[in-house]
Amino acid sequence: MADKIGILGSGDVGRALATGFARHGWDVLVGTRSPDELAAWAEEAGVAAGSFADAAGYGDVAVLAVRGDAVEDVLDLAGAERFTGTLVLDATNPLDFSTGDAHLLFGGTDSLGERVQATLADAYVVKCFNTVSNAQMVDPEFEAETPPMFICGDHTDAKAKTAEILADLGWPEVRDVGDIRSARYLEALVPLWVRLAGDLETYGHAFTVVQ
Q1: Which of 99, 158, 194, 207 has the smallest count of CB within 10 Å of its CB?
Q2: Which of the listed CATH numbers 3.30.70.260, 3.40.50.150, 3.10.20.30, 3.40.50.720 matches domain 4-200?
Q3: Rounded Cα distance, 33 and 18, in Å
Q4: Separation of alpha carbons 174 and 124, rounded Å
Q5: 31 backbone dihedrals φ, ψ, rounded to 5°
Q6: Residue 29 and residue 135: Cα distance in Å, rounded?
Q7: What is the largest CA-CA distance in the chain?
């Protein structure tokens, strides 16, 4: 029987992750505000559609893939109790495009990763996927060698499970950058990533570490 995963979010990131996990044999349910409006796409993609609460309680793994400014509302709609014991892969970024350029809604001494873990106190939150484009999140293809995926979180076992999942999705290595407070720095990379996308005229780039 396939592993079950709930994807909270039906935008570009949520759909890319849903189709990617399904392609790798996962039983996927996508949570959204209006499941009926997602039904045709879900059937074509080979996934199920439901509410945020449905996605939160669907399996032992969930992905949070909504806009940064919607995270609090989505978790409230889902219900924190439904995430108890769940590995939550947090792909969100607190981005604000209101001035044209991407910048953080907050950062430096706080992060969405930390806020998600504080809200979901009985879940195991791992920051993941947030430093690459949705097109590269599953089965990544780069002109150069595929870089490691940056992750962070407070729970060693949860990060080990995340590494196993990422390996299945085509990531040859992860770079564990510490506890969930390190989400401050992973999220802070993203406005730079967006600015470089304009200069490079591509969304297929990623950051790495060299020695």
Answers
A1: 99
A2: 3.40.50.720
A3: 16
A4: 17
A5: -95, 135
A6: 19
A7: 50
Task: List pLDDT tens digits, range 42-87.
Answer: 999 999 999 999 999 999 999 999 999 999 999 999 999 999 999 9
Q: Per the confidence metrics, is the pTM higher than 0.85?
A: yes
Q: Which residues of the chain have pLDDT under 50?
A: 1
Q: How far apart are CA 83 and CA 74, in angstroms?
A: 13
